[in-house]
Amino acid sequence: MSAARPVRLFRNISAKIAAIPMILTALVVFVGGTAWTVTYSFTSSKLLPKAKFVGLDQYERLWGTSRWLVSIENLLIYGVCSMVLSLIIGFLLAALLDQKIRYENAFRTILLYPFALSFIVTGLVWQWLLNPDFGVQNVVRGLGWESFTFDPLYNSDIVIFGVLIAGLWQGTGLIMCLMLAGLRGIDPDIWKASRVDGIPAWKTYIFIVIPMMRPVFITTLVIIASGIVKLYDLIVAQTGGGPGIASEVPAKYVYDYMFQGQNLGQGFAASTMMLLAVLVVVIPWAYLEFGGKKHG
């Protein structure tokens, strides 16, 4: 047994040596940077980091700030709506394309194209489209509906839904492709058997196909959730956080305090809370993907 261990240790030695730089980068940059950020979130650092610890003062101030609370509320609204609508729309589009329709490649390319754009470009495009002076509202009023109103980016009560429209337009294509790949992995004999048994297509999707696509749904949820937590570019391009602070999000709060407000301690505290949000998503996913398989 002892002689077998060194043999395993030196197996694929070239690949292990090649992986050393990446492992060191992960340890130093990611793990080290995370530990440094969390540590200095308990300090009173302003323009420059300084090791003057103040306990939980930064976190008490963070959760007592209306701007942070608004940003959390916006992220929750955007996140829940984005996750639900992305999955529903993406799956429906994938189910339609899975019917072997004509020009499928063209439709798939058109639907996926927005994902190739940056969030800045998407934000600017939808800022113009939702502008009441020359966007959708102006076009519809020009057709005769003078009382039509559609200006979500200028209404503090619904501005986050204006951002949501742009986010769905850009991200739904990717979700569609992931779902389509999952549907194409379903054994065709399942569909033949359901037709022979006279089972409606919608029941086949709900009770057979969707449960079989569980890994695809879990992976898709993780991708959507990671994009939700780091939402920043779209907000900056579309609204700049306005009107007022109505469309603030945590990532913008962190950036503003660290680089504009010159308050590193507060920015570090906010970024630590964002890190916890990411862990809440990643840990259950890792358990379902790896721990569940081991127990099974």
TrEMBL record:
Positions of the ABC transmembrane type-1 domain: 72-287
Superkingdom classification of source: Bacteria
The keyword Transport belongs to this UniProt entry's keyword annotation: yes
PROSITE patterns tied to this protein: ABC_TM1 (PS50928)
Cell compartment(s), UniProt: Cell membrane
Protein's UniProt keywords contain Cell membrane: yes
UniProtKB keywords: Cell membrane, Membrane, Transmembrane, Transmembrane helix, Transport
Family annotation (CDD domains): TM_PBP2
Membrane topology, record value: Multi-pass membrane protein
Membrane-crossing segments per the record: 20-42, 75-97, 109-129, 158-183, 204-229, 268-288
InterPro entries per record: ABC_transporter_permease (IPR051393), MetI-like (IPR000515), MetI-like_sf (IPR035906)
Similarity comment text for this entry: Belongs to the binding-protein-dependent transport system permease family.
Protein name per UniProt: Sugar ABC transporter permease
